[in-house]
Each structure stands twice: as C-alpha cells, then as structure tokens.
Design goal:
This protein has twelve helices and 28 strands. It is an alpha+beta fold and 693 residues long.
Length: 693
C-alpha cells in the first residue's frame, strides 16, 4: 500500500510452520533413515553424546559447564586424539564451537551436533580428521540454551528465540536474547534493546544469564589455548567477524579473519554452490552488541566468528532435507579453519608422494613450506631417508627454490630397493612440523622399479568401449564420451593434457538446473575393451597394476550420499567381475586410482574394467572416467644372477648391496623365495655371486 517494493516468500507463515512441524514429527516417528534426516530434540542429542562417549573413550570426553535458568544441564564435549609423546592432549590448541544460543535456529544446532559426531566417528578412519585431532582439541557445546530449545518443541512455539527467564517486574514478556548478554560492550542501544518484549532484549546486566556466565567462564579458562571460536547461527549465509558493536575502527586482526573466512567459504562453495559472505559483522549484516564473538576477541584477542548457515526457504525453519547438505558442507568449512590452527607451518607435496621411482637415479620431489601462524626457520627444512624398513635415517637439507617452494632429492637406489622417507621443518619458535603427520612412526615409502606399459587409453574416443548394458535402467545421465561442461557436481575438463578434451561422463551437458542431466532412475554401466595385463617376460617378480582417473559426485539432491560409484575388474573377458572400489567420497576433483591386479585376481590378457553409476534415491549423481591404463612394475631379470645392483658387472658392490638388503630384511633379499630372509638366502646369494656369467 505504501509503494515499498517487496516479495512474498511464504504466503502463510503459520501454515508453513505447521507443515514443517508435521514433517519433522513424521520423520522422527520412523520415516527418517538416519539421525540427520530430521531435527532432533534435546533428549535425542544428549543420548547421542552419551553414545559417543561410550563408543570412543579417550577421544570423546563429556562434562557439564553450568545450568540454565530452569536448572537444565549445559553440556560440553571435548574431542581430540589420545596423548602422544611430546604431544599431550592438554597442550594442544583449542577450537571452540557452540550452538543454540537462539532456540529457534535448529539447523545450526544440527550442524554443531554433526561436527561432534563426525570428528568422533572418523578419528582413525579419515586421515585428515585423524591428523587434525592429533593436533587440535575441539570443545563443542551443542546447546547453550536448553530451556529455549525445549520450548520450541512445544505447540505453537517453534520460532521462539530467547531463553526462558521469567518476566521482570512490570512486564509480561519472557526471555533474554543470550547473544546480547555477553559482558564485552554490553548495554549499547545500537544492536541490543533494554525492552523485555524485544527479541534483542539484553537483560539487566552483562552475564546476568547463567547460560552465558557458564560460556564466558569456559572461554576465560581455556583462553591460553583457545585459537578459534565459532558461534553457530542461521541463516544469513555469512561468516561474521568482530566487531558487532561498532563499524569503526575495525579489529586489528580483521585481515587475518577475512583470510580465514575466505578459506572456509572456498571449502564450502564447491559442495552445492552456496557462496558465503565474510567480513566484519557490523558492516556486512548489522550492529549487535553484547555478542559472543566480540567477547572472545575483545576480552582475549582470540579469533572468533558468528557462523550463519545458508539461506533457505523457511528462514529459521528450513525443511529437514536441508540438514544433511548443510552439515556436510559445513564440515568442510570447519576442517579448513582447523587446518590453519593445527599447523604453525604447513608442509605439502603438490605432486603427491611418489610410491615408485626409477632405479639407480636420484629423484626430485617438489615440496612447499607455507607459513600459517608460525614462521619456518631458514635452513631448517630436511629430508630423512633410509633404505629398507629399519635402521637409522640419513638427513639431507632440502633446496630452497624461492618463496614457499623447496626440492627434496631421494637418493639413487638399486632396482627393487625400498626408500623410506619423511620431511621436517622447524619454526622460529622451536616447534617441529613433519610430513607425514606422526613421522617417523609414519613414513612415505617408494620402491625403485622399472615400469612397462601394457595397455593405455586416453578416452578421447569411445572406440572399443560399451556405454551401456542391456540391464541398465537409468532414464537420464547415461555414460557418453564427450567434453564435459562444468557444474557444481561435474568436471569442466578432462585429465588428458591438451589437445585432449574428452572423457567418459554421465551426460556432460549443463543447464541452469545442474540436476537436469545427472544420473536418474537406476544404473548406467561403462565397460572397457578387453586389454592385456599379463605379466611381461624379462621382469623378475613383477606386479601388474590397473590405473584410472575417476570423478564421483553423490552428495547433493534429496537423499545425498546414498549412491556410490562402483568400479569392477574382470580377468575373463567380462564373464565375471570383481569389485575393486566402491566410491563414497565426494572430492569434487579428478582422483587417480591405482590397484594391484593380483590383490583381486590373476592378471591375464583378457581384462576388462567396468564402472557403474547409479541413482535410486533422487540424489544428484555425476561420474566421469579418463586415462585408463595397465602396466607392470618390476626389475629386469639380470643376465647374471649375482649382479645384485643391476649395473651389468658382478663385483664387490653387489655383495655390499645384498648385505644391506639382507640386514634390513628387505623382501628382495629372500633369494630362495621361502618367505623368510635368513642364512639360507645368504648362502644362495653366495652361490649366485660365485657362479660365472
């Protein structure tokens, strides 16, 4: 009526909320397939917390940090790996995550619970999470406001925001906005209210509410180890850094917080193209005083954010189908932040760690050393290596190529020799960072061997390939050979270097709705031509491998993570197949896989590779395959058995090299092939050594 532009998003809010609650209750009544298919009440969440403590003792530790206005417990879960020599849990940096200051923001609470669940369950299973948990302790308070949260489950109160503080004298309005009750810059009228009937009522004093007093006491107690604080909310799709109470001047650490905000955004965006905004909260959203992030940063100068989950239909009451994708993408953002706080300096191998190197030739390995919140000490970068599985490591300084780029050089090794190695850098503060994490208890391993190609296909055409089986049921997204178009679920290019452009993909087209051309309705099967993977002649103790690049995306849509990609291999021309990989991960990148054929079957000259993509649940499923090959790895059969190092001459060096392998217990020193390296192998080698060629 006033001529103000507007858009009606929900025609009848009460009907929407009623329908929303009906869906939640239906799913909780038994239709939910997993914990995260619907919203959960406090009893269910606390039951899950108890289950995690029971299932993962020493990893998950639960305690109570306080009680609410109504006397309900406020629970804390601490998650980290067990104590390690020189790395006790009590000395690790802390990342604090809390949820449910605002009672109605259920999806933010479910995301907080998911973080807790995944960190506990995937320790020891997921390499990245394990490494982070060995360096960081996560403090998670899922429900800061138990009274308010319980109240949102009562009839007609789904959108209640505050706690349940009874009305002050002279008022009939209940509750205090807990995220206006923190004591740093409390009481400002810009961003909070002194009116008990306001949704942003700040209370009678900073920390007047037991819920926030308990949280503030927790933060004060862990401040020396606290590195990052995430206060979970919904649903503005933003990372809000301090300050909230003023726009100027900005906090001194705003550039760093923006850098980390961008890192979290970049980790989340590929999942379903939800792009988070980041920046000073008072600038990119609105003023709010007496909030959690300002307290943590203002009182203790610790990095802190308000995490606003993605925008979705329903505002504070999005559909239950939003829970899992919001949780999954959120975990990627959390891990990106944790990476920064876990490592003062980051060691990385841009080209991955070589598992095979050429014999009798030094091998260069590209290394990057990036300063995060620490600084690498000049000249401290080192490579440690040894031949075989035991004995002392030899130290070598890495070459600094400029900036973050370094070069480590593995020594030349005779064919068949294993090189074990790890990398190390020291910080100016005296800390040590190693790669792989846990070295020297964990190491990289490379074996010096020759490679012989047996078959390869760049997948630039479909010649010889089958794009379907008679039993396939997919109605869309069938395999084709094409140049793929980029979508949030599909690659935008193949693997083959230019001028290559094509690969096998489940319908490489794109559209405004990227789910239009994904796999739907069942299975679609890609089968290679028959290829030769029989062990070649002239190789001693060779292994045959099949390698391929694959892309798999299955984490979007109505029921994500329910349709894995299946890769199979046959050694009888396709009469029978054995599964060699079931792909459940969603890396949103090309992944090279290499399998040793003998781990599954005898390699023959009639091998076939088969890849099955499927969608039985309405998820968005995309897959692609490129650069498929078979090759043998091994050492040439020496013309002279006593020529142990393969240099063409039987001499004293062969005896020394054999003794090195023998003393290290190297598998190739099992000369007689009885499975044991012992004195009989030494005698057998002496016979070979003394036999004229």
């Amino acid at each position: 009526r006033m001529g103000i532009g507007h858009e009606v998003v929900i025609e009848d809010v009460q009907k929407y909320v009623d329908d929303h609650m009906a869906e939640v209750l239906r799913l909780r009544g038994g239709d939910a397939q997993s914990f995260y298919d619907t919203y959960r009440d406090r009893a269910e969440i606390e039951t899950l917390m108890n289950q995690l403590v029971a299932a993962y003792p020493g990893i998950a530790i639960q305690s109570q940090i306080g009680t609410s206005v109504e006397g309900k417990p406020i629970k804390l879960m601490r998650l980290s790996g067990p104590d390690q020599p020189g790395n006790p849990r009590s000395g690790r940096p802390i990342i604090l995550i809390n949820g449910c200051q605002h009672a109605r923001e259920w999806i933010a609470l479910m995301t907080t619970v998911f973080f807790m669940d995944r960190l506990a369950e995937e320790y020891g299973m997921n390499a990245r999470i394990t490494a982070l948990m060995d360096r960081v302790e996560f403090y998670i308070v899922p429900i800061v406001n138990p009274d308010g949260y319980d109240y949102t489950w009562t009839p007609n109160n789904r959108l209640w925001r505050k706690n349940r503080r009874p009305p002050p004298t002279g008022s009939t309005c209940w509750g205090i906005d807990l995220n206006r009750n923190w004591s740093f810059q409390w009481g400002l009228n810009s961003g909070s209210s002194g009116d008990p009937c306001s949704d942003t009522y700040r209370g009678t004093a900073g920390l007047s509410e037991p819920e926030i007093a308990a949280m503030a006491a927790l933060i004060d107690s862990i401040a020396p180890r606290l590195r990052g604080h995430l206060d979970m909310h919904s649903s503005a799709q933003k990372f809000l850094s301090p300050w909230g109470y003023t726009t100027s001047p900005p906090p001194p650490d705003l550039p760093l917080m923006d850098t980390l905000g961008a890192r979290m955004r970049d980790a989340i965006t590929p999942f379903r193209n939800k792009v988070y905004e980041y920046g000073q909260g008072s600038v990119i959203l609105y003023l709010n005083s007496g909030n959690a992030r300002d307290y943590t940063y203002g009182m203790h100068q610790r990095l802190s954010w308000t995490w606003e989950s993605p925008t979705a239909t329903g505002g504070f009451a999005p559909a239950a189908s939003e829970i899992r994708p919001t949780c999954n993408e959120g975990l990627d953002g959390l891990l990106a932040l944790a990476d920064y706080h876990a490592y003062p300096v980051r060691l990385a191998l841009p080209g991955n760690a070589p598992a095979v190197v050429a014999p009798n030739t030094a091998t260069d390995v590209a290394v990057t050393i990036s300063n995060l919140w620490g600084t690498a000490s000049p000249g401290s970068s080192r490579l440690y290596w040894r031949f075989g599985p035991s004995g002392p490591f030899t130290q070598a300084t890495m070459a600094h190529l400029g900036g973050a780029d370094y070069r480590a050089t593995l020594p030349a090794a005779p064919c068949g020799t294993e090189i074990q190695y790890y990398l190390e850098a020291t910080t100016t503060a005296g800390g040590t960072v190693r790669l792989p994490e846990g070295a020297p208890g964990r190491i990289f391993s490379a074996t010096a061997m020759n490679s012989q190609s047996l078959w390869s296909d760049s997948c630039e055409s479909a010649t010889g390939w089958s794009l379907s089986l008679g039993t396939d049921t997919a109605t869309a997204g069938r395999w084709e050979n094409s140049a793929p178009s980029a979508t949030p679920a599909q690659p935008g290019s193949d693997v083959t270097p230019a001028p290559g452009t094509r690969c096998f993909v489940t319908d490489g087209r794109t559209s405004t709705n990227f789910g239009n051309y994904d796999v739907d309705g069942g299975t679609t099967t890609l089968t290679s031509p028959a290829f030769n993977a029989a062990p070649p002649s002239g190789f001693a103790d060779s292994d045959v491998y099949v390698a391929y690049h694959r892309w798999a995306s299955n984490n979007r849509g109505s029921l994500p993570d329910t349709n894995p990609l299946v890769v199979q291999l046959s050694n009888n021309g396709g009469s029978t197949y054995t599964t060699i990989e079931t792909v459940t991960e969603n890396t949103l990148s090309w992944v090279r896989r290499q399998v040793r054929v003998s781990d599954f079957m005898t390699p023959t000259s009639t091998m076939r590779l088969r890849v099955i993509a499927r969608d039985d649940t309405g998820a968005i499923v995309e897959a692609a395959v490129d650069e498929v090959s078979a090759f043998a790895m091994g050492c040439p059969t020496p013309a002279c058995p006593g020529d142990w190092n393969g240099d063409g001459v039987v001499d004293f060096n062969d005896l020394l090299d054999f003794l090195n392998d023998f003393n290290a217990g190297a598998p190739r020193a099992d000369v007689n092939g009885d499975g044991v390296v012992d004195f009989n192998d030494f005698l057998e080698f002496l016979n070979m050594y003394n036999t004229p060629c």
